[in-house]
Structure formats: structure tokens, C-alpha cells
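#lab-general

N.A. 3:47 PM
ok so I finally got the sequence cleaned up, no stray characters, all 266 residues accounted for. can someone with queue access submit it? mine expired

B.Y. 3:52 PM
send it over

N.A. 3:53 PM
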Amino acid sequence: MTAGDRIRQGVVLLAALAQVASSALLGRSVGGVARENASAILPAGYAFAIWGPIFALSLAVAIAGFVPSLTTHPAVRRSGWSIAIAFTADAVWAAVFPKGQFVLAQFVIIVGAVAAIRATVRFQRAADGNRLVTVLFGGTFGLLAGWLTAAMFVGLANTLVSAGMSGTSGWPGVVGVVLLLVATGVAVAVVRACAAGPLPGSLAYAAAVAWGLLAITVEQRSAVPLTAYTALGLAVVLLAYLAVIHRLRHRAAPIRRRPQRVPEPG
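B.Y. 4:20 PM
back already:
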């Protein structure tokens, strides 16, 4: 273990604690603030409960990272600084979003989403057969990255509404569909980039995005059916894509690993 490893894990722990503390000290529900500027892709309020497992797992990852064998694991090393940036961005976002600083909050959540996605992809590409590492670290990074992917586009719609766009009638429903399509396109690209790694990270990522899409379906099925059923269809497409790409990967893996037969002399 190097001094750089110790510094990195210390920063990850401080950022994870700041993420939880910032959210706990807000005094206002993020879902409630978002509802004040309801857009055509606002998810149901229960969707924001996903922050609970994310915070708990983030703390678990930050603490587990001090175990020497985990601190020096190549996948943990490659993703550590990126996840620290993601945790920090979450802490800042939780402080500015409830105050109605939506433009600043949108910039911050984009930074957090990009950092979390980078951490997830880098982790997946360096992960090995260590089950604890792949499930705990990969699952946590994937869950955070997936939810921030969804939140990034939901937040953009919220920002547009706060700037004066009508949230539910007429053309904003079309804008909502466009945002959903772009969000799912990003999610598909991330799943593809992570496909070479273990399933837990990719599954957690896709599940978090699908969680947001299904919550949009629940919330908008009466208000804006166009975005509601688009979100439902895209959730199915994303999960089906994950299943197909991993099935193809595992079918091809034995072929790639099959040893070459050496001809016998004579």
C-alpha cells in the first residue's frame, strides 16, 4: 500500500460522509422540491428513496476500502478518484438543489454523473473474480452511476420548467420524450462499455436507470401518457439489451478461453 492509496481512501471516506451529511441536514425533501417545478418526466416520489441504499453502500465501500487487500486491488485503484469526485458532487448538489439554484445544481449533477460513470466503466474493465469486490464495489458504483444518469436528465427537465417552460402540456411532452431517448441512449452505451466486466456492476447500473424510468411511468401515466409509456418501453429495452449482451458475452467467453491444441510430434 502506497501513500497515494491512503490519501485516496481518506478522500473517498470524507466524500462519502459529506454526501450523507449534506443530504441529512437539508431539511427539505429533494422530491418535494422537484415537484414544485414538475416536468413531464418527473418520477414518482418513492423513486428518490433509492438514495438510502446508495448512501449506505457508499459508506460501506468507503470503509471497506481501508482493508489493505481491497485498497490495492487494481479495480479499486482505477476507480477511486472518480468515485470520490462523484460523492463530492452529490454532497454539493444536495446543498444547492433544495435552495432552488437549479442551473448550478444541473451543472454539479452532470459532473457527478460523468464521474460516477467513469468510475463504473474503469472498475468493470479492471475487475477480476473477487466476488466481494465485484458485488460490493461494482454494485455500489453501478447503482450510483445509474441513478445519476436518470437524475441528470430529470434535473434538466426540472431546470427547463423552472426557467418558464410549461411542465406537462403541449410540446414539453415531446421534449420529455427526447430527453428519455437520449438518457436511454447514454445508458445503453454505458452498459455496452461495462459488458466485459462482471454482471453485478452492469446490472446495478441498468436497474437504477430502469427504476427511474418505471417511476416516471407511474407518475405520468395520467398526466402525460406520451412520456409515461415511452419511459416504460425504454426500461424494457434497456434491461433486454443488458440480458442479450451478457448472454452473448458468456457464450463467447469459453471460445476465447479454449486452449490451442498443440500437434504431437511425428
